[in-house]
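User: Last request for today: this protein with zinc ion, please.
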Amino acid sequence: MIRELEIVTQRDEEVPLMPISKELLDILACPKCKGDVFLNEKEDGLVCKRCRLLYPIKEEIPVMLIDEALPYKDPEG
Ligand SMILES: [Zn+2]
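Assistant: Here's the final one, the structure of the complex with zinc ion:
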């Protein structure tokens, strides 16, 4: 029984969930300031720190529209 549990745990670790690839992040830019965006902690949106906007990722597709962007609260203040 213990062995079975170990196998399940290992399987979970082997599947890295990357909703947005690094290559895609390099291409994407904030539509407002054309600056760099980065993935937020929850990995459900792209953040532009300069504009303090969060562009939501819907079904693995980042929505880079100012109208769709949400206000981003920087946890660092
Ligand atoms: Zn911006």
